[in-house]
Amino acid sequence: MRTAETGQRARTAVITGASSGIGAATARTLAREGFEVVLTARRADRLDAVAREIRDEGGTVRVVPLDVTDRDAVRAFAARVPVCDVLVNNAGGAYGTEPVEHADPGDWRAMYEVNVVGALQVTQALLPSLRASGDGVVVVVSSTASFTCYEGGGGYSAAKHGAHVLAETLRLEVCGEELRVVEVAPGMVRTEEFSLNRYRGDTDRADAVYAGVAEPLVAEDVADVVSWAATRPPHVNIDLLVVRPRAQAAQHKVHRTS
Ligand code: 8X3
Question: Are 49 and 27 in contact (CB under 8 A)?
Fold first, then answer.
Protein backbone atom coordinates (compact mmCIF):
# COMPACT_ATOMS: atom_id res chain seq x y z
CA MET A 1 0.00 0.00 0.00
CA ARG A 2 1.20 3.55 -0.76
CA THR A 3 0.33 6.66 1.20
CA ALA A 4 -1.62 9.33 -0.64
CA GLU A 5 0.62 12.20 0.55
CA THR A 6 4.08 10.85 -0.21
CA GLY A 7 3.52 8.06 -2.72
CA GLN A 8 5.85 5.96 -0.57
CA ARG A 9 5.10 2.46 0.60
CA ALA A 10 3.35 2.51 3.98
CA ARG A 11 5.37 0.69 6.62
CA THR A 12 3.74 -2.44 7.99
CA ALA A 13 3.92 -3.64 11.59
CA VAL A 14 2.67 -7.04 12.70
CA ILE A 15 1.77 -7.33 16.38
CA THR A 16 0.99 -10.67 18.00
CA GLY A 17 -1.18 -10.86 21.08
CA ALA A 18 -2.78 -7.61 19.92
CA SER A 19 -6.21 -8.24 21.42
CA SER A 20 -5.42 -6.60 24.78
CA GLY A 21 -2.77 -5.18 27.08
CA ILE A 22 0.69 -4.43 25.74
CA GLY A 23 -0.10 -5.79 22.28
CA ALA A 24 -3.18 -3.63 21.79
CA ALA A 25 -1.40 -0.56 23.14
CA THR A 26 1.57 -1.20 20.86
CA ALA A 27 -0.73 -1.50 17.87
CA ARG A 28 -2.36 1.83 18.73
CA THR A 29 1.02 3.51 19.20
CA LEU A 30 2.54 2.18 15.98
CA ALA A 31 -0.61 3.15 14.05
CA ARG A 32 -0.13 6.71 15.35
CA GLU A 33 3.47 6.51 14.11
CA GLY A 34 2.05 5.90 10.63
CA PHE A 35 2.40 2.15 10.36
CA GLU A 36 -0.24 -0.01 8.77
CA VAL A 37 -0.76 -2.35 11.71
CA VAL A 38 -1.65 -6.00 11.34
CA LEU A 39 -3.28 -7.26 14.52
CA THR A 40 -3.12 -10.93 15.37
CA ALA A 41 -4.38 -12.92 18.34
CA ARG A 42 -6.76 -15.78 18.87
CA ARG A 43 -9.82 -13.73 19.87
CA ALA A 44 -11.32 -12.16 16.75
CA ASP A 45 -13.95 -10.15 18.60
CA ARG A 46 -11.39 -8.41 20.77
CA LEU A 47 -9.14 -7.74 17.79
CA ASP A 48 -12.07 -6.13 16.00
CA ALA A 49 -12.65 -3.82 18.97
CA VAL A 50 -8.98 -2.71 18.97
CA ALA A 51 -9.10 -2.26 15.20
CA ARG A 52 -12.18 -0.05 15.48
CA GLU A 53 -10.39 2.23 17.93
CA ILE A 54 -7.41 2.52 15.59
CA ARG A 55 -9.61 3.25 12.56
CA ASP A 56 -11.52 5.87 14.58
CA GLU A 57 -8.18 7.63 15.12
CA GLY A 58 -7.51 7.51 11.36
CA GLY A 59 -5.10 4.57 11.44
CA THR A 60 -4.81 1.77 8.90
CA VAL A 61 -5.34 -1.66 10.32
CA ARG A 62 -5.84 -5.28 9.32
CA VAL A 63 -7.11 -8.02 11.61
CA VAL A 64 -5.98 -11.61 11.23
CA PRO A 65 -7.09 -14.03 13.95
CA LEU A 66 -4.14 -16.33 14.62
CA ASP A 67 -2.88 -18.84 17.15
CA VAL A 68 0.90 -18.40 17.12
CA THR A 69 1.37 -21.98 18.30
CA ASP A 70 -0.26 -23.33 15.12
CA ARG A 71 2.61 -23.55 12.63
CA ASP A 72 0.49 -24.08 9.51
CA ALA A 73 -1.74 -21.15 10.41
CA VAL A 74 1.31 -18.97 11.03
CA ARG A 75 2.76 -19.86 7.63
CA ALA A 76 -0.55 -19.14 5.89
CA PHE A 77 -0.70 -15.81 7.72
CA ALA A 78 2.84 -14.83 6.69
CA ALA A 79 1.98 -15.45 3.04
CA ARG A 80 -0.51 -12.60 3.35
CA VAL A 81 2.18 -10.13 4.55
CA PRO A 82 4.73 -9.92 1.72
CA VAL A 83 6.59 -7.00 3.29
CA CYS A 84 6.91 -6.53 7.03
CA ASP A 85 8.87 -3.67 8.53
CA VAL A 86 8.32 -4.38 12.21
CA LEU A 87 7.30 -7.61 13.90
CA VAL A 88 6.36 -7.33 17.56
CA ASN A 89 6.39 -10.76 19.19
CA ASN A 90 4.18 -9.95 22.12
CA ALA A 91 1.90 -12.98 22.47
CA GLY A 92 2.64 -14.71 25.74
CA GLY A 93 1.56 -15.12 29.29
CA ALA A 94 1.93 -16.84 32.64
CA TYR A 95 -0.18 -19.73 33.88
CA GLY A 96 -0.02 -20.70 37.53
CA THR A 97 2.15 -19.82 40.51
CA GLU A 98 2.80 -23.27 41.94
CA PRO A 99 6.30 -24.05 43.19
CA VAL A 100 8.44 -26.39 41.13
CA GLU A 101 7.48 -29.31 43.37
CA HIS A 102 3.80 -29.02 42.55
CA ALA A 103 3.69 -27.26 39.16
CA ASP A 104 1.66 -28.78 36.36
CA PRO A 105 4.02 -29.77 33.52
CA GLY A 106 1.14 -28.92 31.17
CA ASP A 107 1.33 -25.29 32.32
CA TRP A 108 5.07 -25.23 31.72
CA ARG A 109 4.58 -26.66 28.23
CA ALA A 110 1.82 -24.16 27.45
CA MET A 111 3.99 -21.25 28.57
CA TYR A 112 6.93 -22.47 26.51
CA GLU A 113 4.66 -22.98 23.50
CA VAL A 114 3.24 -19.47 23.46
CA ASN A 115 6.18 -17.43 24.79
CA VAL A 116 8.97 -19.18 22.89
CA VAL A 117 7.76 -21.52 20.15
CA GLY A 118 5.06 -19.07 19.10
CA ALA A 119 7.58 -16.25 18.75
CA LEU A 120 9.94 -18.60 16.94
CA GLN A 121 7.30 -19.67 14.43
CA VAL A 122 6.06 -16.17 13.65
CA THR A 123 9.62 -14.87 13.32
CA GLN A 124 10.65 -17.75 11.03
CA ALA A 125 7.61 -17.29 8.83
CA LEU A 126 8.00 -13.51 8.54
CA LEU A 127 11.77 -13.33 8.05
CA PRO A 128 11.47 -13.25 4.23
CA SER A 129 8.98 -10.37 4.55
CA LEU A 130 11.22 -8.58 7.05
CA ARG A 131 14.15 -8.94 4.64
CA ALA A 132 11.95 -7.57 1.83
CA SER A 133 11.49 -4.42 3.91
CA GLY A 134 15.15 -3.48 3.60
CA ASP A 135 15.10 -2.55 7.31
CA GLY A 136 13.21 -5.24 9.16
CA VAL A 137 12.91 -5.00 12.94
CA VAL A 138 12.04 -7.99 15.09
CA VAL A 139 10.92 -7.03 18.59
CA VAL A 140 10.68 -9.66 21.30
CA VAL A 141 8.65 -8.58 24.30
CA SER A 142 10.25 -10.67 27.03
CA SER A 143 10.20 -9.85 30.75
CA THR A 144 12.39 -9.07 33.71
CA ALA A 145 11.67 -12.75 34.43
CA SER A 146 13.98 -13.43 31.47
CA PHE A 147 16.95 -12.63 33.71
CA THR A 148 15.94 -13.67 37.19
CA CYS A 149 13.94 -16.29 39.05
CA TYR A 150 11.42 -16.05 41.83
CA GLU A 151 9.42 -18.48 43.92
CA GLY A 152 6.37 -19.75 42.06
CA GLY A 153 7.54 -18.25 38.80
CA GLY A 154 9.64 -21.15 37.51
CA GLY A 155 7.64 -22.06 34.42
CA TYR A 156 7.13 -18.46 33.35
CA SER A 157 10.71 -17.51 34.05
CA ALA A 158 11.99 -20.56 32.15
CA ALA A 159 9.87 -19.59 29.15
CA LYS A 160 10.91 -15.94 29.27
CA HIS A 161 14.57 -16.94 29.58
CA GLY A 162 13.86 -18.84 26.35
CA ALA A 163 12.41 -15.75 24.69
CA HIS A 164 15.57 -13.85 25.65
CA VAL A 165 17.73 -16.58 24.12
CA LEU A 166 15.66 -16.45 20.93
CA ALA A 167 16.32 -12.70 20.59
CA GLU A 168 20.03 -12.96 21.44
CA THR A 169 20.64 -15.89 19.08
CA LEU A 170 18.73 -14.40 16.17
CA ARG A 171 20.65 -11.12 16.49
CA LEU A 172 23.90 -13.04 16.16
CA GLU A 173 22.66 -15.10 13.24
CA VAL A 174 21.37 -12.20 11.11
CA CYS A 175 24.29 -9.86 11.82
CA GLY A 176 25.32 -8.31 8.51
CA GLU A 177 21.78 -8.31 7.11
CA GLU A 178 19.35 -5.40 6.97
CA LEU A 179 17.62 -6.73 10.05
CA ARG A 180 17.53 -5.61 13.66
CA VAL A 181 16.55 -7.61 16.71
CA VAL A 182 15.28 -5.73 19.75
CA GLU A 183 14.27 -7.12 23.12
CA VAL A 184 12.04 -5.19 25.48
CA ALA A 185 11.86 -6.65 28.98
CA PRO A 186 9.09 -5.17 31.13
CA GLY A 187 8.85 -5.56 34.88
CA MET A 188 5.62 -4.91 36.76
CA VAL A 189 2.93 -3.86 34.29
CA ARG A 190 -0.68 -3.65 35.36
CA THR A 191 -2.81 -4.94 32.51
CA GLU A 192 -6.31 -6.28 32.39
CA GLU A 193 -5.33 -9.90 31.96
CA PHE A 194 -1.71 -10.80 32.79
CA SER A 195 -2.05 -11.46 36.53
CA LEU A 196 -5.62 -12.68 36.17
CA ASN A 197 -4.43 -15.40 33.80
CA ARG A 198 -1.51 -16.23 36.08
CA TYR A 199 -3.86 -16.63 39.07
CA ARG A 200 -6.44 -18.51 36.98
CA GLY A 201 -9.13 -15.87 37.29
CA ASP A 202 -8.70 -15.12 41.03
CA THR A 203 -9.17 -11.35 41.02
CA ASP A 204 -8.18 -10.88 44.68
CA ARG A 205 -4.79 -12.53 44.19
CA ALA A 206 -4.31 -10.77 40.86
CA ASP A 207 -5.05 -7.37 42.42
CA ALA A 208 -2.73 -8.10 45.38
CA VAL A 209 0.24 -8.11 42.98
CA TYR A 210 -0.15 -4.34 42.57
CA ALA A 211 -1.40 -3.51 46.08
CA GLY A 212 0.19 -0.37 47.47
CA VAL A 213 2.38 0.15 44.39
CA ALA A 214 1.97 3.82 43.57
CA GLU A 215 2.21 3.53 39.83
CA PRO A 216 2.83 0.17 38.22
CA LEU A 217 3.61 0.49 34.52
CA VAL A 218 0.64 0.37 32.19
CA ALA A 219 0.51 -1.14 28.72
CA GLU A 220 0.99 2.26 27.09
CA ASP A 221 4.35 2.71 28.87
CA VAL A 222 5.68 -0.46 27.30
CA ALA A 223 4.13 0.37 23.93
CA ASP A 224 5.96 3.69 24.03
CA VAL A 225 9.28 1.90 24.59
CA VAL A 226 8.62 -0.67 21.85
CA SER A 227 7.64 2.03 19.41
CA TRP A 228 10.70 4.14 20.24
CA ALA A 229 13.08 1.21 19.87
CA ALA A 230 11.52 0.12 16.58
CA THR A 231 11.72 3.57 15.01
CA ARG A 232 15.40 4.42 15.54
CA PRO A 233 17.44 4.98 12.37
CA PRO A 234 18.32 1.73 10.56
CA HIS A 235 21.91 1.61 11.82
CA VAL A 236 20.81 1.79 15.49
CA ASN A 237 19.96 -1.53 17.12
CA ILE A 238 18.50 -1.29 20.61
CA ASP A 239 19.56 -4.72 21.83
CA LEU A 240 17.74 -4.78 25.14
CA LEU A 241 15.61 -2.40 27.13
CA VAL A 242 14.56 -3.26 30.68
CA VAL A 243 11.62 -1.15 31.80
CA ARG A 244 10.16 -1.18 35.31
CA PRO A 245 8.04 1.16 37.40
CA ARG A 246 10.04 3.50 39.64
CA ALA A 247 8.67 1.59 42.64
CA GLN A 248 10.29 -1.67 41.48
CA ALA A 249 14.07 -1.57 41.81
CA ALA A 250 14.39 -5.32 41.31
CA GLN A 251 12.10 -8.32 41.03
CA HIS A 252 11.89 -8.71 44.84
CA LYS A 253 12.34 -5.03 45.69
CA VAL A 254 8.98 -3.33 45.29
CA HIS A 255 8.06 -0.22 47.27
CA ARG A 256 4.51 -0.47 48.61
CA THR A 257 2.77 2.32 50.50
CA SER A 258 0.44 -0.07 52.30
C1 8X3 B 1 6.02 -9.92 34.02
C2 8X3 B 1 7.00 -9.50 35.05
O3 8X3 B 1 7.50 -9.65 37.53
O4 8X3 B 1 5.55 -10.83 36.78
O5 8X3 B 1 6.64 -10.27 32.84
O6 8X3 B 1 7.71 -11.68 36.24
S7 8X3 B 1 6.92 -10.47 36.45
Answer: no
- The pTM for the full model equals 0.96
**Residue 199: is its pLDDT beyond 90?**
yes
CA 247, distance to chain mean position in Å, is 23
Architecture of the domain defined by 12-254? 3-Layer(aba) Sandwich (3.40)
> Which of 33, 53, 198 shows the shortest CA–CA distance to 13?
33
pLDDT at 5: 62
Number of other CB atoms surrounding residue 159 within 10 Å: 28
- Catalytic status, residue 156: yes
Domain boundaries, the chain: 12-254
Q: Whose CA is nearest to atom 6 of ligand 1?
A: 145
Selected catalytic residue, list 95, 112, 156, 199: 156
**10 Å Cβ neighbour count for 64?**
17
